[in-house]
Write the structure tokens for this entry.
Amino acid sequence: MASPSLTPAGTPGIAPAAGAPTLRPGALLQRAFSLLVEWNDRYRQRVHLGQLDDRMLRDMGLTRTDAIGEYDKPFWRG
């Protein structure tokens, strides 16, 4: 005797979509850690940018307004 199925006959079971990423706990933790490192780097770079004088900003091709606009962005925005 065949075992009973939990899905009606002819109905496909639930399967991941083709090309869908598989979430593994290790990969998820690695991605979270990478994201935190990226956010920290972005925060530190923006703080440093806010401390540069006008001459240094001009050497980089930026104005004070450009620097303030970047400095004021939240760390999670690229």
Notes: The two ends are 59 Å apart (CA to CA). The helical segments are 25-51, 54-59, 64-71. The first helix runs from residue 25 to 51. Residues 24 and 57 are 44 Å apart (CA to CA).
